[in-house]
Specification:
single chain; 2 domains; 19 helices; 21 strands; globular
Length: 480
C-alpha cells in the first residue's frame, strides 16, 4: 500500500457549530467542507430540533456523506455541531467519529474536539478504575465522562470542571438542548474563532469556514476562554488562571488554509514572508524556483520575489489521487510518488532548480521528488525548507512520528542533504520563522508560540508520554 502523503504531517481535526439558524445542519456541512483539509478520514454532525438530538456520523469525506438532501433532512433543528477528523487519538472506526453524544443527568450533550489531551490516557485509566464504561478509544470521550461525574450543579460549571482537569492543546465545541459551548486551551495552542451569520453565532476552527457561508468573523476565542452561546447571545467566561498565549506555529507553516486568518495574521501573507526570510537566510545561485505543491507554493512565491529568481510550476500535482493506493508489484509501488506529482520537463531541463517545501518529516517522499527533478533533466537541485528541522514529537493533536522516525532527529543537515541527494539544503531558522510572524526572534525565556517540534520546549505537562516512558524503563529494568 502506498500513501502519497506519507511524508506529510496529518492535519489534526476541524470543528464547526452554529446556533439558532433554521438550516443549521446544512450550514454545518458547508463549514466542514471548508475545513476538510484538517481531516479526511471521517465526519459527523449532531443537531437538536427542540425536542431531541439527531446524529449522523460517517467514514470518509464530507462531500461524500453530507451533500445529499436526505442526509441533511435527518438532521433537523436550529442548532448543530460538526467535526471532520483525522485520528490523532484512537483508530478510524465509526465509534470514534465525532461529535460524540451522551445522555447525562442534566440532559443530552454532544461534543467535538480538535487537538489532543496529553493526559487523556491517564484520565481514562483512572475513570475505568472508578467504574466508567467507554464505548470509543478517542480521548474526546474522556470529557463526556468528566462532565457526567462532576459534582457541580449547573451544566456550564460541570463542563468547566471537566475541562479544568485536562492537559494539552484543544478546542472544544459542545451542544446541549439549550446552549452551544466553545472552549480553547489555556495557551491557545489549537485555534477557535467566533463568527456571526444573520444574527446566528458560529464557532469554527478557521475563518475559511466562515467565508464559505458568507459569515462575519467576529473575533478569535481567547486562550483559556469558554464561550456560552444561547438565545440571549454570547457569554464569555474565564474560568482558569490567565496564561500568556502560545498558539501552534504549524498553523502558519502548514495546517491552516492559506485564505484563513489566524491570530490576526493572514496565513498566505505569513507564508510568503516565510519564503522571503528563507531567501535572505539561504540564498543560492540558481535559475528557477519551484514549489513542492501545494503547501510549498506561498513560501516559494516569497522566495522568488525576494531572490529575483523566476517562479515556475516545475511539479504538477494530480488532485484526483486518493490518500492510499494498492499496487500489485514492487516496481509499480516505486512509481507511487508519480501518481501525485509529475515533473514539468519544459521548466526543469538544464536548469539549476530551487525546490521549496513547507517541511520535511521522514524524508522519503522528498527524496523521490528530488530524483524526479534529476530525471527531468535538472542540472542542479537545491532544497529550501520553510521551517526549522522537525526534531521532536508532538502530543497536542498533530499526528507526528516519534523521534526515531523523524529524519532531522536522526541526521544532521549535511547527512539529510546526502540522503536526499541534493546539491544544497537549508532550513529556515527558528528566529527567521518568528521574524516572519512579526516577532523580533525567539525569546527563549518568553517564546510567543508553541514550537516544541523544533525546540523540544513543551509548553504543558505531557503526562501520558512520561507515564508510558516510565513503564518502558520499568519493563527494561525487570528484563535486565
Amino acid at each position: 500500500m502506498f500513501d502519497p502523503d506519507e511524508d506529510k504531517l496529518r492535519e489534526e481535526c476541524g470543528i464547526f457549530g452554529i446556533f439558532g439558524h433554521p438550516d443549521a445542519a446544512a450550514i454545518t456541512a458547508l463549514g466542514l467542507h471548508a475545513l476538510q483539509h484538517r481531516g479526511q478520514e471521517a465526519a459527523g454532525i449532531v443537531s437538536f430540533d427542540g425536542h431531541r438530538f439527531h446524529s449522523e456520523r460517517r467514514l470518509g469525506l464530507v462531500g461524500d456523506n453530507f451533500s445529499k438532501r436526505e442526509v441533511i433532512e435527518r438532521l433537523p433543528g436550529r442548532q448543530a455541531i460538526g467535526h471532520t477528523r483525522y485520528s490523532t487519538s484512537g483508530g478510524t472506526v465509526l465509534r470514534n467519529v465525532q461529535p460524540l453524544f451522551a445522555e447525562l443527568q442534566t440532559g443530552g450533550f454532544a461534543v467535538a474536539h480538535n487537538g489532543n489531551l496529553s493526559n487523556g490516557l491517564t484520565l481514562r485509566r483512572q475513570l475505568i478504575r472508578d467504574g466508567a464504561i467507554f464505548q470509543a478509544t478517542s480521548d474526546t470521550e474522556v470529557i463526556l465522562h468528566l462532565v457526567a461525574r462532576s459534582r457541580r450543579n449547573r451544566f456550564i460549571d460541570r463542563f468547566t470542571d471537566a475541562v479544568g482537569q485536562v492537559e494539552g492543546g484543544y478546542a472544544f465545541v459542545g451542544m446541549t438542548n439549550k446552549k452551544m459551548i466553545g472552549a480553547r486551551d489555556p495557551l491557545g495552542i489549537r485555534p477557535l474563532v467566533l463568527g456571526e451569520l444573520d444574527g446566528c453565532h458560529i464557532l469554527a476552527s478557521e475563518t475559511c469556514a466562515l467565508d464559505i457561508i458568507g459569515a462575519r468573523h467576529v473575533r478569535d476565542v481567547e486562550n483559556g476562554e469558554v464561550v456560552v452561546i444561547g438565545p440571549e447571545g454570547v457569554e464569555s467566561l474565564q474560568p482558569f488562571p490567565q496564561k500568556r498565549a502560545r498558539p501552534c506555529l504549524f498553523e502558519y507553516v502548514y495546517f491552516s488554509r492559506p485564505d484563513s486568518t489566524v491570530g490576526g495574521r493572514n496565513v498566505y501573507t505569513v507564508r510568503k514572508r516565510i519564503g522571503a526570510m528563507l531567501a535572505e537566510e539561504a540564498p543560492v545561485d540558481a535559475d528557477v524556483v519551484i514549489p513542492v505543491p501545494d503547501s510549498g507554493v506561498p513560501a516559494a512565491i516569497g522566495f522568488s520575489q525576494t531572490s529575483g529568481l523566476p517562479y515556475e510550476l516545475g511539479i504538477i500535482r494530480n488532485h484526483y489521487v486518493g490518500r492510499t493506493f494498492i499496487q500489485p508489484t514492487q516496481s509499480v509501488r516505486e512509481l507511487g510518488v508519480r501518481m501525485k506529482h509529475s515533473a514539468n520537463r519544459a521548466v526543469t531541463e538544464g536548469q539549476r532548480v530551487v525546490l521549496v517545501d513547507d517541511s520535511i518529516v521522514r524524508g522519503t517522499t522528498s527524496r523521490k521528488i528530488v530524483q524526479m527533478m534529476r530525471d527531468a533533466g535538472a542540472a542542479a537541485v537545491h532544497f529550501r525548507i520553510a521551517c526549522p528541522p522537525i526534531r521532536f514529537a508532538d502530543y497536542y493533536g498533530i499526528d507526528m512520528p516519534q523521534e526515531d522516525k523523524l529524519i532531522a532527529a536522526r541526521m544532521s543537515v549535511d547527512e539529510i542533504r546526502d540522503f536526499l541527494k541534493v546539491d544544497s539544503l537549508a532550513f529556515l531558522s527558528i528566529d527567521g520563522l518568528y521574524r516572519a510572524l512579526g516577532e523580533p526572534g525567539r525569546n527563549d525565556a518568553r517564546p510567543q508560540f508553541t514550537d516544541h517540534y523544533f525546540t523540544g520546549d513543551y509548553p504543558t505537562p505531557i503526562t501520558d508520554h512520561v507515564s508510558e516512558a516510565g513503564k518502558q524503563v520499568a519493563l527494561l529494568a525487570e528484563a535486565g
